[in-house]
Design brief:
By secondary structure, this protein is mainly α. The chain has one domain. The chain is 73% helix and 0% strand. The chain contains six helices and no strands. Helix 2 packs parallel to helix 4 and helix 5 packs antiparallel against helix 6. It is globular and about 45 Å long. It starts with a helix and ends with a helix. 40% of the residues are buried. The mean pLDDT is 93. This is DUF4126 family protein. It holds the Pfam family DUF4126. It comes from Sphingomonas ginkgonis. Keywords: Membrane, Signal, Transmembrane, Transmembrane helix.
Length: 154
């Protein structure tokens, strides 16, 4: 369940990144195929679509008009993508627990990441802080998905 919670936590900062990470890993065959796995995530079109949405989010986050991640729609998106990503890194018999862990971590991580970003933006600006946050979150999601895939294949 740790991988499910950690991948969900990355959704707290970038809602589409964990979904793109698990979909790309599934499409590349890096997540083991098990009964109950969300096979639709392995579809190359889904992987390309989630990656495009994640890239769009990375770009849009730097815009002055970007809403805060803690607005209701932002929290709803994080809850949903955290749940899906969390479930995808859980064993089939633990899929619901993985979804809860991912969703909960996504919502809980939204607030401290938002606060940290707001505080650092005062000194370093929106674009610089956003690029650093992007690198941290994309790297963390890739790392967690890789470690989660390894744990699932045991």
């Amino acid at each position: 369940m740790l991988a499910s919670a950690l991948v969900g936590a990355t959704a707290g900062a970038r809602s589409m990144t964990p979904l793109a990470a698990v979909s790309l890993a599934s499409a590349a065959g890096r997540l083991p195929e098990q009964e109950g796995r969300m096979k639709w995530l392995a579809n190359p079109w889904v992987a390309a679509g989630t990656a495009a949405l994640a890239l769009g989010e990375l770009y849009g986050d730097k815009m002055k008009s970007a809403p805060d991640r803690i607005v209701p729609a932002g929290l709803a998106a994080r809850l949903a993508t955290g749940a899906i990503a969390g479930a995808s890194l859980a064993r089939p018999e633990e899929k619901r627990t993985g979804a809860w862990a991912g969703a909960t971590a996504a919502v809980l991580a939204s607030f401290p990441t938002w606060l940290a970003r707001k505080q650092t933006m005062v000194k370093h600006g929106q674009t610089k802080t956003g690029l650093i946050e992007d690198a941290l979150i994309v790297g963390a999601a890739a790392l967690v998905v890789g470690l989660g895939a390894r744990a699932l294949s045991r």
